[in-house]
């Protein structure tokens, strides 16, 4: 049985303030329901995300601001920083972890700048909403093996698809240099590259 994570509850103290903040970041409002004065549910979805967040009144017993380590995945951490800065989210500088695997809690062991090798999963930035709920952006360009099913390749947005096509085009150019000829089957090669890259399996050469 599939069990898909689709909703994360974010505890806030001021629903309208939180709604305004996430709206400013370009998150889609899916619902804002208040059947009475004591209960309200707001659901919002980050751009391109299959999962959403819910906040509101009487939807959680967690203290406002206690949600930490919520991850948003991007394919260009520097571009993400520029966008969050422009939208007023006050992001941290881009960083990687001193251990080189995953980031430590809080700000411990942060090293300024993206991962020197720009390794997938290795570069981060952080920001908080008005209540202090902590978000991290993580740059992922190539998935670990088995992370996604190659039989169900999907792209959440046109931008994601365009980025994948650009990476495939660059890799295909290197492929043609290696074989010393133009590849008439480039559409098939592009398709294989994009599917395998997303699934984290061996890339075509």
Task: Give me the side-by-side strand order of the main sheet.
Answer: 1-4-3-2
Order of helices and strands: EHEEEEHEEEEHH
Q: What shape does the CA trace take? A: globular
N- to C-terminal separation?
36 Å
Low-confidence stretches: none
- Strand portion, in percent? 15-25%
Quickly count the helices. 4
In total, how many beta strands?
9
Biggest pleated sheet: 4 strands, mixed
Q: Helix fraction?
A: 25-40%
Verbal overview:
There is one protein chain. This protein has 205 residues and is of the alpha/beta class. 27% of the residues lie in helices and 23% in strands. It has four helices and nine strands. A four-stranded mixed sheet has the order 1-4-3-2, with helices on one face. Strands 5-9-8 form a three-stranded mixed sheet, covered by helices on one side. A hairpin with a 2-residue loop joins strand 2 and strand 3. The chain is globular and about 70 Å long. The relative contact order is 0.13.
Give a topology summary:
Layout: E1 7-9, H1 15-24, E2 28-36, E3 39-45, E4 52-57, E5 70-74, H2 77-86, E6 95-97, E7 110-112, E8 124-128, E9 134-139, H3 158-179, H4 186-199
Brief summary:
The chain is α/β, with parallel strands linked by helices and 205 residues long.
Task: Provide the descriptors you would attach to this structure in a database record.
205 residues; alpha/beta; four-stranded mixed sheet; three-stranded mixed sheet; 27% helix
